[in-house]
Amino acid sequence: MDPRSFSDLFIRTTAERFKGIDAHGLRSMASLLQAGNDHGEVDIIGIRDEQGEWRAGAAFVHWQGRTVLLKSASDDKGRSLNAMFHLVDVGLEHACSVSALMDFAGSEHQGTARFYEGFGAKPTVYLRLSKNDLPFWLKPFKR
127 falls in which pLDDT band (50, 70, 90)? Predict the structure, then answer.
């Protein structure tokens, strides 16, 4: 699946369902997927229906010994075909050949987390450091 087709599918499915993803963010995602694909660091796989329409897709990033499931998208027909199960399975199989670790990039959505657990995912806490460089008198206002 090419990055443009994936981005189009993502916009009409996942972005539409979750709202709040602005046009600039969607264009940035499309550009980053294209650049990563051009450099061989992003693989995008997808499933088409009998008419050749894209119904589901998943973008995987290979970086520093790990494969990350970066973004996925599926329309109603893709969901009825259980397309994401197949895509994650294929992505996981490929990740085993190129990476030491498959990172599902987590989810705070219980259904998604349960889906990943079906592939052997384990919850992991990632620590984050945040630096506040604001002037002393402004620091309390940033939380």
Answer: low
Considering 6-10, 20-24, 99-103, 120-124, the range whose residues carry the highest mean pLDDT is 6-10
CB under 8 Å, gap of 24 or more: what pairs does 3-8 form?
A: 3/30, 3/33, 3/34, 3/37, 3/42, 3/44, 3/59, 4/30, 4/34, 5/46, 5/54, 5/57, 6/33, 6/44, 6/46, 6/54, 6/57, 6/59, 6/71, 6/73, 7/33, 8/54
Q: Please give the residue range of the domain that contains residue 94.
A: 3-141
Q: Is the pLDDT of residue 49 over 80?
A: yes
Query: Is the pTM of the predicted complex or chain greater than 0.90?
Result: no
* Structural domain count of the chain: 1
Distance, in Å, from the CA atom of 62 to the CA atom of 95, rounded to the nearest integer, reads 8
CA 29 to CA 25: how far, in whole Å?
A: 6
Looking at residue 53, which CATH number applies to its domain? 3.40.630.30
